[in-house]
Amino acid sequence: MSRILVTGANGFLGSALVRALVERGHRATCLLRPGSDVSGLAGVEYTRAEGDVIHAPGLVRAVEGQEVVFHLAGVRRAATREDFLRVNAEGTRRLCEALVAAGNRPRLVLVGSLGASGPSSAGRPREEEDVPHPTDAYGESKAEAERIAFSYADRLPVTVVRPPRIVGPRDRENLLLFRLVARGLRLRLGGGERPLTLVDVEDVVDLLQVVAERDEALGQSFFVGHPHPFTLERIQDLAAEALGVRPRTVNLPPLVLSTLATAADGVARLTGRPLPLNRKFARQLLAPAWTCSSAKAERLLGFRATRDPADTIRRSALWYRQHGWL
Question: Which residues cross the membrane (predicted)?
């Protein structure tokens, strides 16, 4: 049994990770802000640590005595580049400082993002050794978080896992697509198909646990994803099949999508409520491809993502409907 801290534990991936850790008999501590929605952790036995990655005192208390720290906390939507950097990058620095101060060299597993590397070309997936080219402030902040984490590698055992687009029940990042399909609409972006690497949330959880235990993972970064790319259109087709609907295809020129996303961001700033559509999401959809190779994880760790995202998309669509999310 290990003592494990998870930051961002109440999120989609975080709650799935905590459940898996507890099922394996580990003692999980969740770093949670006051008032956090912990519905994803319902029925799970864990220790709550009040705090966040921005305020050092709460971090120092949370990391004390931990053997492994999974760092998932961060923001995916923010008003400014500085807000992304403050939480995703400087929050990682504060966590590393707290871990160093703890004195027992707990193992750090940072959950990064394919966004830190940037989009790929349609014909060649991203590899871990490629020079990062993030295309937005979120990606920049995640790339900087990686750089900061590895700068502590002489004082902490560090590993980074970079998931692409994660799918599964409870995911909100892709929920807009499912809601459109449920309402009878299917988007087709102009400019041709754009390949996407997808990964089931449970495959990410499995790899996180592997890298926390294997010395071969130290000082390394890993992509994780299903080997066969999907497309935005196929995701919608699979959702429609699961929901038993025949949506009408709406051709959406890139300029129209960008304009709508800009308007949505303006509304979000005025109301203080983030909307499902935003410029970050639009830029991701309009990139030529978001694919990555998981060959390194298989070569060094013998790990492969085995769950078919097509099945996951179908299950997710049914889960959303059963729980009133559509």
Answer: none
